[in-house]
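Notes continue from the previous slide.

Worked example: a multi-chain complex. Inputs as given:
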Amino acid sequence: MSTLTALRNEIRKGLIFAWSERLQILIEMPMFAVFVILLGPLLGQGENLASGRVDWSLNSQTTSAMVLWFTPFIFFYMQVVKMFWRLLGEIQAGTLEQVFLSPLPPWLVAAAGRVAAAFLETLFVAAATYAMVSVFVRIHLHWTVAAVVPALAIMVAAIGLSLVIAGATLVYKRIQIVNDGVLMMVMIFSASALPLIHVPGWWAALSHASPLTDGVGSLYNVMIANRSVDSAWGVGGLVPLFSVSAAYLLAGIGAFILGARVAKNRGTLSRY
Amino acid sequence: MSTIAFQTRLVRAELDKGLRLMWRRRALVVAAAIVYALTYVGISLFIGGGHLVKDLMVRTLPALLAVLVASTAAVEGCAGISEELSGGTLEQTRLSPASPQLQLLGRMTALAVEGLAVAAAVGIVFVSAAGLDINPRPEALIPAALTVLDALGYGLIMTALVVRVASIGAISHVGTMAIMAFGGTLVPISVLPHGMQIFARFIPTTLGVESIDALLAGRGLAATWSGGTLPWLLVHTAVLLAGSFSLYAINIRHAQREGGLSAR
């Protein structure tokens, strides 16, 4: 009972924080739509661009795939980046030590406090991105309940990655630039799951270790390619989808516990 | 000691502090350089359709280097003030005989050193490892210096906002993304649609990158001046620097009056 109460309180705290950051969300909101609109006509156009020629029209199929690609990335952004800032804020304010007095494991306090808020923020920003891009080009997505399966796996992987970053934050503190870079890598590698560009072999191979690739692949299968969600193997297959997500969650929990132990031993949990 | 010598000493003290702090987190500075380099490779691969188009990279690399300076100035400038606010040491800095602008000058000089070091390292790696054929021209140093000042002006604006705006993290993030998107890192500014080009020229570093690109392409300094890019860059940089220094002084004085120099 006390566990459930503590968990509910953390989720509520996360939502209160999210509401207090509503201006930030509004400021960040157009960023994703602008990137989709700007990057869409440029994909694979390197040679043309070098010679000064570019067709700025948006292709419906490509743009639909890009919106699908960006939506889970928005969740990653909301979960990972905001959790980092919140943790840093608690370290700076000196309240992080109090987290360790909770009956819940500290990694669960950190993750639970963010995930519900990140989900709601993502719904809002993704809807706004969809609406903004739709003004320029028609987006074709096949809405199906089956999309919940990759969505859940994506959320688990994002929680895992956010805990890895959080663990590193406990030890190294000011790592926002590394944080941004890691997210950029996640985004870049996950593109190999979509037929947007032809990626080199090493890129395709490396991308399987990325937390978002199979999630995006599975979403593409069910929401654009009209394929079934239950294929076991291949990009977006259930086996790689859930094994990668579970691996990231476990790695995240491990990294957070390790980071917390190092910070506690050094006595730097609430010292900046 | 003369007034000028005293003021110089105060700026040097701030610069010294900034460089010591940078040295303490040198691992993160290196990590940031690697991260930006990888991001640029990723974007280049996207746009190249899975391979690097060197002719295009020659034209977009100066923009990446400008982003590095601007981003370092904004991120580290904001983080520095934010940490001092939380730690309660920003109030102590107001006991110094140095004016807020003078202290900011020292801080930003340190950030300029950091940003330029990162940009130089990344630039050398790309030119040598990717074999980019860039013809360095001495006259390009003029717009390059103005671009650095323009980038610092942007960083100063973000730094000045820390004491007044709680959501500065998001604002500086969006600002840096805008510089990346419209400042020539994705594509040369000249290939953007006309309306977007006009908008892009208001973004910090865009005019500088455009001038550098023109000079590296073989157009002379006189042509860049008569084309209007260089004079506008001069105006943009001057307005941004003057505005940011004034904004910082106003915000610090406001925070001092309202008791906002320590944690909110």
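Summary box: Chain B touches chain A through 46 residues (CB under 8 Å). The two ends of chain B are 39 Å apart (CA to CA).
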